[in-house]
Write a structure and sequence with these properties.
alpha+beta, Glutaredoxin, 20% strand
Amino acid sequence: MKEVTIYSTSTCHYCNLAKEYFKAHNVPYVEYNVGTDMEKRQEMIDMTHQLGVPVIVIGDTAMVGFQENKVAELLASENAMPMAA
């Protein structure tokens, strides 16, 4: 499974929904609170060119906002086994 990272704030409703989704689906994740961690905030801005949260990174793919279908799709594609030739 590829690493999952979420850049969030403690008051962000969609951040909390994303974290609840990860917990409910047993998806381990690393969380950075960009409300208190200025270095990670800048990292997030450099990556997305905006301040919107959550920023969810699954493998090498970053998305702004929590879209359950998109997250499920990215997780499924990250976990898929290559087809035998």
